[in-house]
Write a structure and sequence with these properties.
The protein has 1498 residues and is mostly beta strands. 10% of the residues lie in helices and 40% in strands.
Length: 1498
């Protein structure tokens, strides 16, 4: 039983494999039988016994048919039961076999199914390489062979088969992973020969040959090696055994960076002072230590460091170490990519710059061109030179040279030079190449021969001295010919003359056009001493003849024989060895590793001095190429590294020579990089179709339709197979040996009146899928109804959250007359209540249904309509959910910014490997059209209108096949088309939009900058400035530049003079766009610009020494102090600073400090007296600078206004102050001066200063006094302080109680002032202290005053003194009072006082008298103080009231009115309310603390 199961399993597998590949042929195979039996067995096992289904109750007219069918089934019942029994037995056996198969399969190791390969002849992917080795060293020959089936490889030497057993240990043959190798151990000289590997298979034979040359150490013969291999130079014996361990691999670097190649090794014996000898090679060039390469070995490590990477360093690097048995070596490739250019789009730098043909007249510089993939083509090159020992590079050619070599002349004889090259394209200039090695410009050939005698003496012999005759004038040169011809120049060479004459010679070159004899001198300004020279200035399409004349100091020779006509050659012409090479041939790419590919190609037919090849790669579909190598590679095979596993690439190759790059080769076939992914894609058979429906029947044939499988199995469905049976039969029969391609099929040769059932199977690359469920029984009866049949193939597109597009195909049966329209019915999923979507029939096979519920599922059916009525409804569609796919995007309409083409673009939210974009107009697929073009790549698809017009209006839609209904539509209407046409026209006929027109500005140093700004510029913009109809280029004194990022184009004239007057124009070309802008700079406008330029030039000169960075200006502080300030620059310790006013030096308290960067001069209490011319002088040994500031006129007004602004802001409220003269209103502020614009108003009328109204002020306040006020002066008073911008006002209401109280206080003060003026008082004459000796006479005399005349009373120690013998009192004329003591005694010492009074009051004055005896020391006087006025009682007669203290009593009411609570009091002091200001406020009137002699009236 197990053995049988295994056999069945193998048989089934074989049958399954065959069914995968014979999809389009007949299915009459064992696999079909097995599958059919399996299906039938499954059906049989599902039911234990066959039961005739109960039919639904029939109508009477259908009873006869029912009875016929029942009789038919009854006759076959016995036969069916027998067949069922047989199937049960077979099914049980098959189930047992399947179970055994599963067990065996679980025990078997996992076996990977490889796809069947297409037969292929043998081919060498990697051929044998020639080797030159030393005797007794091993050599390994290897190759890689491909083919299907795998070919057998045999090895031959000189066409004799190699048998390893014939020489044991001599040969070793290996085959690992497709790499075949032959190892020859300890080679002998006799092993030299031609070795070949022959690969053989049933499909052909291939051979690869290589030469092995074995040399003896002392043989000395010339070595032979292949290009690209490191040659073996000499032999280096060693006693060390070296084994390489970890070595450097493929390395990637960037220009300007650095990289280190490191190899680890084991050295036996390991001697620190004797490391192994190692040599490094790049390709076949031996590397030496230099500034570009640093080498080290020791400690088991060999290291090569490239500190300044350049593309010159790219290549195959080989490390060769000499060992005891010969050499051991390791190689790996180093890739160096271009550095980021300074200008976007600029090309990469050239490489391998070399100087050759060096002589005193010129040096031929050559280089290799860089690779260009996405950059614009190179238009030429600039060559720069630099003298050794200097850092300045000088450009050699004014215009770019197109060939990769240039003769550089104009060199200094004897000087050493380095050269570098820069590539140019339309976007900019590349970074410079690595500089060349130094060469010396000197004459190589000489007519002087130097002979040394015994190493002491030198004998110089000239060539002319060896001539037999004495000749002074040289002969003509001979053999004048062109050694190099190209489109830019030609190089003439000739043989020096003989004889040369008796002096150094030089040469003159002449040319003529064609066969004319008009000769023109070529080198008019250069003396040629070398027998070759490059000639420029040759016109295209013209031929020239040349001749050369020899000249020395004695004269010139006859002209040489002229050359044959020479014409410049187009480098892209067909002349042999002139121009770029032809394109390489076929490119073949094959897998190498998971990150690399092996690319080989055929050499071009015309090599034209080939330098090498550039290989480019591109991801399939990206159209973006990137370089694989950055330095020309010499061979026709290359390993491309750094690829991404799993991606698909195509490759192309370009050939390179001195004229540039050839055309690209054809692209290779796409190559998958990761080989493991190639055979990993497995496909399954599709699921079963469903929904079989009948579309038409004519009595002998039926047209069927069905729905595609829900699962395609991962590949496209290629065909469908149909089976049929009669309704009462169990045997299925194939409808046709040829499968159906579409989902409709007409089954022929049917019997009329018979019921048929059908089933369908789908097939793809994996095979035939499961069959569908049997259809319902269709009666083969001809359709004769007048209405149309059902539509079919209902599909859904553009599914969105609230809408869906329903499409269908028209009925196959159209009825008696043409179809006129369709009705669409809709119902929610699970419901049978269909509702019509359209009230009127539509004439096309699609309808967009809107207003759906988001997330709800719907089903649809369609009915066709003709003139006879509405036909049969279609089958109900599959449900569709009104929900847009995640990431769904709509078609976007736009205009290409480059070409101006109008396009529709669609980006699919999902695609599969087999997806295709299908575009339609009005939902009819666009196959071939002259109106549009369609391009698709990845997820993107674009429909471009060739020339959009009104006939292109309509609805455009796109659908993505093999997806879950990804689609979209777009309606192009007339209005939008017009808008797009205008935009397209603007792009096809563009202008450069300017943000600003041409303008100018004056810069420092007096430079004038002309500039224009565009809204957008590309890196390829071209422009030119035209001044007075003359184009200007960038040169010394005039610099022209632009900035793409800002869109600014500018021209700077460094020295602007009268000669620059005129019209300035700029013309801009940016791609296809153009623009122009002009500026007229003449007359007064030019004079203003010239004046400003000269001023800025002088300013620049001034600023070279100490100077004012900011000239004098004023500033007013918060305290109203005026400060003159200035800022200084470029000062030092020795710099001095001085202030002047009206040329008189100002001495300040704090000396100015220039090192602080600023100086200031304070002017406090500023007023009109401070007007004048102020000057600040700054100077040292570098020069001096002066700043003058005239404070007068407007400047003075500005300062006053600034002071008024601060003072007005600080002004207090108006304060009322009563005086004996009247009522005064005062306003206190930080500073006040009469120059301030201050106005007083009474009832909105301005007050002028007069006897009645006096206006004045102090430094701290402004006041207005009403003299002798009356009721007319009542009302509102306002003060306004104007600062030039605004006014600051304060108001006081002098009316009502305020006026009454103020007026009373004024009367009181007026009376008090009158009494104070007329009261009795001592005017003067009395001392404070008197010291007198005893017995002397003392007279105290004073002057008194009063109106009326006062009374005088004297007191001693507060006792009244009366006149007697001792005391004599006199009062003369009412003015002079005296007290005389004739003879004083000690008792007369004491305190004396005088009381002077009248009716208005009086005062006491005290005198201290001290008497001492004769002989005593004079006592120290004790100074007293002047007695303060003391109020004395007034006489009763004149005074109506008793005397009181002059201070107002508390009971006296204040003259200041009390305002209501809501009104602010004008008095700043809260209580007691008084018109007088607080003591803390200064006042011009005497303080109230001095007592008035006039008593207060009650």
């Amino acid at each position: 039983m197990p053995a049988k199961g295994v056999t069945f399993y193998r048989q089934e597998q074989t049958q399954h494999q065959s069914s995968k590949h014979v999809v389009q042929h007949s299915r009459k195979s064992s696999s079909r039988v097995v599958k059919k039996e399996q299906v039938q067995a499954s059906e049989a096992m599902a039911e234990q016994a066959y039961t005739v289904p109960a039919f639904r109750e029939r109508a009477p007219e259908g009873m006869q048919e029912y009875q016929r069918m029942a009789a038919h089934f009854g006759r076959d019942l016995v036969q069916l039961q027998q067949e069922l029994h047989r199937m049960k037995v077979a099914t049980k056996e098959q189930v047992d076999n399947i179970e055994i198969t599963r067990e065996v399969k679980g025990m078997m190791p996992l076996r990977k199914d490889y796809p069947v390969e297409i037969p292929k002849a043998p081919d060498f992917l990697i051929s044998l390489r020639a080797h030159t080795v030393w005797e007794k060293t091993p050599v390994k020959l290897f190759c890689t062979v491909s083919g299907q089936p795998n070919p057998i490889v045999k090895w031959y030497r000189n066409n004799v088969a190699i048998e390893p057993l014939s020489a044991p240990g001599k040969y070793k043959i290996e085959n690992k992973y497709g790499v075949h190798s032959l190892i020859i151990s300890r080679c002998a000289v006799t092993d030299s020969g031609v070795y070949s590997a022959v690969a053989t298979s049933p499909h052909g034979k291939a051979t690869s040959k290589a030469t092995v040359c074995v040399r003896r150490p002392l043989g000395g013969g010339e070595l032979s090696h292949l290009p690209g291999q490191a040659p073996l130079f000499g032999i280096h014996p060693s006693k060390l055994e070296v084994t390489l361990l970890e070595s450097f691999g493929v390395t990637f670097g960037t220009e300007g960076g650095f990289v280190s190649l490191v190899a680890n090794m084991v050295v036996v014996p390991d001697l620190p002072n004797l490391p192994p000898e190692a040599t490094w090679y790049r390709d076949d060039t031996l590397l030496m230590p230099s500034r570009w390469a640093e080498m080290s070995i020791g400690g088991g490590v060999a290291k090569l460091t490239l500190p300044h990477l350049n593309k010159d360093d790219e290549g195959l690097y080989t490390l060769r170490i000499w060992t005891k048995n010969g050499t051991t070596e390791h190689s790996a490739y180093l890739f160096v990519k271009d550095a980021t250019p300074t200008v976007a789009g600029a090309p990469g730098a050239p490489m391998d710059v070399k100087a050759s043909d060096v002589n005193a007249d010129y040096v031929l510089v050559s280089w290799k061109p860089p690779n260009t993939t996405h950059e614009a083509p190179i238009t030429g090159y600039f060559v720069d030179r630099r003298k050794s020992g200097t850092k300045d590079w000088v450009q050699c050619n004014d215009s770019p040279v197109k060939v990769c070599k240039l003769p550089v002349h104009g060199l200094t004889e004897g000087a050493s030079y380095h050269f570098r090259v820069r590539a140019v394209n339309k976007d900019g200039i590349s970074l410079p190449s690595r500089m060349s090695s130094g060469v010396t410009a000197a004459e190589v050939e000489s007519d002087v021969e130097v002979i040394k005698i015994e190493g002491k003496y030198d004998i110089a012999i000239r060539q002319e001295e060896l001539q037999g005759v004495y000749v002074t004038i040289p002969g003509p040169p001979t053999n004048v010919h062109a050694t190099e011809i190209n489109k830019t120049y030609i190089v003439l060479s000739w043989t020096p003359p003989s004889p040369r004459g008796r002096a150094p010679v030089w040469y003159l070159i002449e040319k003529c056009v064609g066969d004319s004899h008009v000769w023109q001198r070529v080198n008019t300004a250069v003396q040629l001493r070398s027998p070759r020279y490059p000639v420029y200035d040759m016109e295209d399409q013209k031929s020239y003849r040349f001749r050369v004349i020899t000249v020395n100091k004695y004269g010139s020779s006859e002209p040489s024989e002229p050359t044959a006509p020479i014409q410049k050659v187009d480098p892209y012409g067909v002349v042999l060895n002139i121009g770029v090479p032809s394109a390489p041939g076929q490119v073949i790419a094959s897998r190498n590793t998971k990150t690399s590919a092996f690319v080989q190609w055929e050499a071009p037919k015309h090599t034209n001095n080939l330098m090498g090849y550039y290989v480019d790669a591109s991801l399939v579909g990206s159209k973006k190429w990137f370089p694989c190598n950055h330095r020309p590679y010499k061979h026709t095979r290359f390993v491309v590294h750094g690829l991404v596993p799993g991606d698909t690439y195509v490759f192309r190759v370009q050939a390179v020579n001195a004229y540039g790059l050839s055309e690209e080769s054809q692209e290779s076939a796409p190559l998958f990089i990761d080989a493991a992914l190639f055979g990993a894609v497995e496909y399954a058979t599709p699921s079963a179709p469903y929904g079989i429906s009948l579309l038409n029947c004519n009595g002998s044939s039926m047209t069927l339709a069905w729905k595609r499988p829900k699962n395609t199995g991962g590949s496209k469905i290629t065909s469908y197979y149909l089976d049929k049976r009669e309704a009462g039969s169990v045997d299925w029969k194939e409808v046709s040996p040829n499968p159906a391609v579409h989902r409709t099929f007409t089954v022929e040769n049917l019997t009329s009146g018979v019921f048929y059932e059908f089933k369908v199977q789908a097939a793809n690359l994996a095979g035939v899928g499961l069959p569908s469920e049997p259809s319902k029984a269709f009666a083969c009866e001809a359709w004769t109804m007048a209405e149309p049949g059902p539509v079919y193939d209902i599909s859904f597109w553009e599914v969105r959250d609230t809408s869906v597009l329903v499409q269908w195909k028209p009925p196959v049966y159209g009825g008696d007359c043409p179809i006129t329209g369709y009705f669409v019915d809709m119902a929610k999923k699970g419901s049978s209540d269909f509702a019509a979507v359209n009230a009127e029939p539509i004439g096309h096979c699609y309808l967009k249904v809107a207003g759906l519920e988001t997330g709800a599922s719907y089903v649809f059916r369609v009915r066709a309509v003709n003139a006879k009525g509405v036909g049969k409804a279609s089958e109900v569609s599959d449900p569709v959910c009104a929900k847009a796919l995640p990431g769904t995007k709509e078609i976007a309409c736009g205009v290409d910014e480059e070409t101006g083409d109008i396009f529709l673009n669609f980006e699919a939210c999902e695609v599969s490997e087999t997806s295709k974009f299908t575009w339609s107009k009005s939902y009819k697929e666009i196959t071939e059209s002259s109106r549009v073009s369609i391009t698709s790549s990845g997820r993107q698809s674009k429909l471009t209108f060739v020339n959009a017009e009104e006939e292109d209006l309509g609805v455009y839609s796109v659908a993505v096949t093999d997806t879950d209904g990804v689609s979209s539509s777009y309606s192009v209407n007339k209005e939008e088309l017009k808008k797009m046409q205008e935009l397209s026209y603007n792009i096809k006929h563009p202008i450069v939009p300017l943000k600003t027109e041409l303008n100018y500005e004056i810069l420092e140093k007096g430079h004038v900058r002309f500039w224009v700004q565009a809204l957008k510029l590309s890196s390829s913009v071209n422009y030119r400035f035209i001044v007075n109809d003359k184009a200007i280029t960038s040169a010394e004194g005039c610099k022209i530049s632009h900035d793409v990022s800002t869109g600014i184009i500018q021209m700077t004239i460094e020295h602007f003079t009268k000669a620059n007057e005129g019209t300035y124009t700029i013309q801009i070309h940016d791609g296809k766009a153009k623009s122009q802008s002009s500026l007229v700079l003449v007359g007064d406008v030019f004079k203003v610009a010239l004046k400003e330029a000269e001023f800025q030039r002088k300013e620049h000169i001034r600023k070279q020494g100490p100077h004012f960075s900011e000239y004098l200006s004023f500033h007013v502080t918060d305290e109203c102090t005026v400060m003159l300030v200035c800022k200084l620059a470029n000062v030092k310790k020795e710099t001095t600073f001085t202030w002047f006013k009206e040329d008189a030096e100002i001495t300040v308290d704090v000396p100015p400090n220039p090192m602080s960067g600023s100086c200031s001069l304070p002017i406090p209490m500023f007023s009109r007296k401070d007007q004048g011319i102020y000057k600040a002088v700054l100077g040292d040994d570098r020069g001096k600078d002066t700043s003058v500031y005239d404070i007068s006129g407007q400047v003075f007004e500005d300062i006053i206004n600034a002071i008024a602004g601060i003072a007005g802001s600080s002004a207090s409220e108006l304060v009322l102050q009563c005086t004996p003269e009247g009522i005064r209103l005062q306003c206190y502020m930080k500073y006040y001066t009469e120059e301030m614009k201050t106005s007083w108003f009474h009832r909105e009328s301005k007050i002028s200063s007069s006897e009645k109204m006096r206006i004045g002020g102090t430094s701290e306040m402004a006041w207005m006094q009403i003299c002798e006020p009356t009721d007319k002066e009542k009302g509102h008073y306002t003060i306004e302080v104007h600062d030039g911008k605004k006014s600051h006002s304060r108001t006081f209401d002098l009316s009502g109680q305020a006026y009454t109280d103020a007026y009373a206080e004024f009367q009181r003060l007026k009376a008090a002032a009158f009494a104070e003026k007329n009261r009795g008082r001592v005017v003067g004459g009395l001392p404070d202290v008197v010291t007198i000796m005893e017995k002397k006479s003392l007279s105290l005399t004073c002057t008194v005053w009063g109106d009326p005349s006062p009374e005088v009373t004297w007191f001693k120690n507060e006792q009244e003194v009366v006149s007697n013998d001792s005391y004599k009192i006199t009062f003369e004329g009412g003015k002079f009072a005296s007290l005389t003591i004739n003879s004083v005694h000690v008792e007369d010492s004491g305190k004396y006082s005088i009381n002077v009074r009248n009716k208005y009051g009086g005062e006491f004055v005290e005198i201290t008298v001290s008497v001492y005896k004769q002989g005593e020391e004079i006592p120290e006087p004790k100074l007293g103080q002047m007695s303060k006025p003391v109020a004395t009682p007034k006489p009763a007669t004149p005074a109506p009231q008793s005397a009181k203290t002059p201070t107002p009593a508390p009971s006296v009411k204040s003259p200041t009115p009390t305002p209501p609570p809501s009104v602010k009091s004008p008095t700043p002091t809260p209580a007691p309310k008084s018109p007088t200001p607080p003591r803390s406020m200064r006042s011009p009137t005497p303080p109230r603390s001095m007592r008035s002699p006039t008593p207060t009236k009650k």
